[in-house]
Amino acid sequence: MISQEQLNRLYDAEVLDQDGERIGALGEVYLDNRTGDPAWLTVRAGWFGGRKVFVPLATAEVRDGQIQVPYSLEKVKGAPDVVADGHVSEGDEQDLYTYYRVQDGPAPSA
C-alpha cells in the first residue's frame, strides 16, 4: 500500500490504469473512516478535470512518480458518483468498497 509520506511527494501525479493508460491527475487523499489510514484517492478526470472519481489505494503502486491502480480506465470511469467534499460517508464508502470489490476496509479481496 502507498504510504501517506509517498502521497505527499506525489501532489498532482498522474494516475494510470492497469495497462499504463492515463486516467487523470491525483486530486485528494481520503482516509478510511474506521482505521484513519489513507484508503482512497480522487482522480481529476474528464474535460479539465471536472469529475473527481474515487479509487482505492489498497493495491495501488508508485512507479516513476506516477500512481498505477489495478483497474481498467472503464472500471474507474464507471465508479459511483461520490461528492468529494472532504469526507466520505460510511454509506458512500461501502458503495465504493462493493464496486471495487474491496472487503470492508482497505485490504483487497481475494
Automatic annotation (TrEMBL):
Pfam families: PRC. Residues 6-71 form the PRC-barrel domain. GO terms for biological process: photosynthesis, light reaction. Transmembrane segments: none annotated. InterPro entries: Bac_photo_RC_H_C, PRC-brl_dom, PRC_barrel-like_sf. GO terms for cellular component: plasma membrane light-harvesting complex. This is PRC-barrel domain-containing protein. It comes from Ornithinimicrobium tianjinense. The lineage of its organism: Bacteria, Bacillati, Actinomycetota, Actinomycetes, Micrococcales.
